[in-house]
TrEMBL record:
Gene this chain is encoded by: VSIG4
Superkingdom per UniProt: Eukaryota
Pfam families attached to this UniProt entry: Ig_3 (PF13927), V-set (PF07686)
Protein name, UniProt field: V-set and immunoglobulin domain containing 4
Domain Ig-like residues, every copy: 21-131, 143-226
Organism: Callithrix jacchus (White-tufted-ear marmoset)
Gene3D superfamilies: Immunoglobulins
SMART domains: IG, IGc2
Length: 361
């Protein structure tokens, strides 16, 4: 009987523990002086449980003071000293972490995260957890150098690019950029900001760079040396456009063929190399197409001129034939008229005879 009661009690505790939301908060967290810190406070959302209230409290003296309140009307910061430096997460369900910026030494204290839910049966459940915030003056860490370019540390000439130096620690943090020299000479100072900007990058800017970071606490820290390379744009273009192809065939002839578009083929026992001259990237099919079009235009013009010449010759012949016909007709007509005139002169009585017959009739 006792064992049965123990199992029932354990089942009740299990339901009470795992059937309701549980807050996850670390026991303590350390933030950098003059820096930013996030105090985690999360829970796993449960079906039927609705978050209705979120509070953050700080322990001052013998009792806690509310510094943040979130309810149905929105977010409210309760203390003036936290205005502009306090924010509570709300984008991710179940995440109500506290974010504090520009930490001061008197921000060290115990903080309480308190969340209230409404249960499926209409009741309310409250859970809270306490954590300790520690504020320390942290020395700067070893800085890292990055670039926002997709080219990495090798870029084309003329590109606007910057190198970023970043270190962790209590601000303010000062940065200095150096460029290494040859022959073991001392590095030269090239910048005093966290960003080293090249606008634009030149081939002369190529070299080895590193940055140094120094904070209020600790010693100066140096980054690893990075090799920054700026390539000439013409070299990059030449590298991309030139595609040499090497073919070997046993040939006995030795000749050099030079075309107007500067394609060169050298053959000396073997066909050694075929490549396009600098800046000549016109495809062969385009050249063949242009030549074909030119030939078509020439043939068309020649055909048109030949047709016009033939038409003019036919017109001249037709005019000559017409003129000959007219001349022949004129000669025949002149001959008839001459014959008639001769007959009239030789037989004058014929007209009188005809006239008499006409009168008789």
């Amino acid at each position: 009987m006792g064992i049965l009661l123990g199992l029932l009690l354990l089942g009740h505790l299990t339901v009470d523990t795992y059937g309701r939301p549980i807050l996850e908060v670390p026991e303590n967290i350390t933030g950098p002086w003059k820096g930013d810190v996030t105090i985690p406070c999360t829970y796993g959302p449960l079906q039927g449980y609705t978050q209705v209230l979120v509070k953050w409290l700080v322990h001052r003296g013998s009792y806690p003071v509310t510094i943040f309140l979130r309810d149905s009307s929105g977010d409210h910061i309760q203390q003036a000293r936290y205005q502009g430096r306090l924010h509570v997460s709300h984008k991710v369900p179940g995440d109500v972490s506290l974010q504090l910026s520009t930490l001061e030494m008197d921000d060290r204290s115990h903080y309480t995260c308190e969340v209230t839910w409404q249960t499926p049966d209409g009741n309310q459940v409250v859970r809270d957890k306490i954590t300790e915030l520690r504020v320390q003056k942290l020395s700067v860490s070893k800085p890292t150098v990055t670039t926002g370019s997709g080219y990495g540390f090798t870029v084309p000439q003329g590109m606007r690019i910057s190198l970023q130096c970043q270190a962790l620690g209590s601000p303010p943090i000062s940065y200095i950029w150096y460029k290494k020299q040859t022959n073991n000479q001392e590095p030269i100072k090239v910048g005093n900001l966290s960003t080293l900007l090249f606008k634009p990058a030149l081939v002369a800017d190529s070299g080895s760079y590193f940055c140094a970071a120094k904070g209020k606490v600790g010693s100066e820290q140096h980054s690893d040396i990075v090799k920054f390379v700026v390539k000439d744009s013409s070299e990059l273009l030449k590298t991309n456009t030139e595609a040499p192809t090497t073919m070997r065939y046993p040939l006995k002839a030795t000749s050099t063929v030079k075309q107007p578009w500067d394609w060169t083929t050298d053959m000396d026992g073997y066909l050694r190399e075929t490549r396009a001259g600098p800046g000549k990237s016109m495809p062969v099919f385009a050249i063949v197409l242009i030549i074909s079009l030119c030939c078509m235009v020439v043939f068309t013009m020649a055909y048109i001129m030949l047709c016009r010449k033939t038409s003019q010759q036919e017109h001249v012949c037709e005019a000559a034939r017409h003129y000959s016909t007219l001349a022949s007709c004129h000669q025949k007509t002149s001959g008839r008229l001459s014959s008639a005139s001769s007959e009239d002169q030789l037989h004058p009585g014929s007209f009188l005879f005809l006239q008499g017959q006409t009168s008789f009739n």
